[in-house]
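As a warm-up, study this chain.
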Amino acid sequence: RLRHLGSYDAPRAVLKRIPGVKIKEMTHNKERATCCGVSALLTCGPVARRMQIERLIEAEQTKASKLVVACPKCWIHLDCAYASNPELGMGKDKIEIQMEDLTMTVASRLDLKFQKV
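Now compare it with the structure written out below.
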């Protein structure tokens, strides 16, 4: 939701303060970032699902080990798209990148315990 407020640098500033974190930007980032389908008020139908899969493929192309998102709803829907699409595990669409919400990344570096629900 920070995206709709034009707030792109704050999450990156937090990540830059974490030792060992290197930011790899996706091709479509900041104001050019593609939507995960939730903000477009789409249900998780075929159109939204395709948007989510395209976002995951673009994230994988960065060769980063982790996709960190600042919006918890994006994380939920991207994680759902990944989990419910077995075709992502084979061929050119193989996705190996891990996903986390920004708060999960910060919490893990502070050694706080959390559970995925």
